[in-house]
């Protein structure tokens, strides 16, 4: 796997690069701003970009903007965004730009090497990985949506889907059978109005509905 890192903190940038190297993942470029990210992606065509939300010059959303532009230029380019704080609108905006290969994690997750590397590989493979803190905050928002019709267990399953877990991983987490999870997932799709399909994108559409709820 070939990765581009965009992070203005030298310490974190080099730390992530070393962590990935220990897992056999090559960093082909490590840059400190959005323009550098765009140039690096154009030059290297990486398998994944790991991007900080806030970078120079204003330290607001330059990284996110650059990541979205990269995905506009190269549709399907996997992007894993790192943020210091939970910023819900950024997670929703990033996911809304494409159906696969996106992730949003708090920077503190980098300290958990296994969790971070799992997210890197999952997103690079076209999956999603949304930080559970983001999901927790979204769950307490009160806005009418089809998600309101879900049972507490179905919301729990959808939250785990948002983290990128497979049905089997969800079953293991909740200590239930695979069949029970499949039933919950089917109910979720039905209540959200997602028509039966063999496409994995239906899971991502369900996650988008959840994040926008």
TrEMBL record:
GO terms for biological process: phosphorelay signal transduction system; regulation of DNA-templated transcription. The modification 4-aspartylphosphate is found at residue 52. Transmembrane segments: none annotated. Residues 143-213 form the HTH luxR-type domain. Keywords: DNA-binding, Phosphoprotein, Transcription, Transcription regulation. Coiled coil: none annotated. CDD domains: LuxR_C_like, REC_NarL-like. Residues 2-122 form the Response regulatory domain. InterPro entries: CheY-like_superfamily (IPR011006), NreC/VraR/RcsB-like_REC (IPR058245), Sig_transdc_resp-reg_C-effctor (IPR016032), Sig_transdc_resp-reg_receiver (IPR001789), Tscrpt_reg_LuxR_C (IPR000792), WalR-like (IPR039420). One of its GO terms (molecular function) is DNA binding. This is DNA-binding response regulator, NarL/FixJ family, contains REC and HTH domains. It comes from Lentzea waywayandensis.
């Amino acid at each position: 796997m070939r990765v581009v890192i965009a992070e203005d903190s030298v310490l974190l940038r080099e730390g992530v690069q070393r962590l990935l190297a220990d897992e056999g993942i090559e960093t082909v470029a490590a840059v400190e701003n959005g323009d550098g990210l765009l140039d690096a992606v154009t030059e290297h065509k990486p398998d994944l970009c790991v991007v900080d939300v806030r970078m120079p010059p204003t330290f607001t959303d330059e990284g996110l903007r650059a990541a979205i532009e990269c995905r506009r230029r190269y549709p399907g380019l996997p992007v894993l965004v790192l943020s210091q704080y939970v910023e819900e609108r950024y997670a929703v905006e990033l996911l809304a730009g494409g159906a696969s290969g996106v992730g949003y994690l708090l920077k503190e997750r980098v300290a958990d090497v296994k969790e971070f590397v799992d997210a890197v590989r999952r997103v690079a493979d076209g999956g999603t990985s949304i930080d559970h803190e983001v999901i927790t905050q979204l769950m307490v928002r009160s806005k009418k949506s089809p998600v309101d019709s879900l049972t507490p267990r179905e919301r729990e399953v959808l939250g785990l889907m948002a983290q990128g877990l497979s049905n089997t991983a969800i079953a293991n987490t909740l200590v239930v059978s695979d069949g029970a999870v499949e039933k919950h997932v089917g109910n979720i799709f039905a209540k959200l109005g997602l028509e039966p399909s063999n496409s994995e994108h239906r899971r991502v559409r369900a996650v988008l509905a959840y994040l926008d709820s």
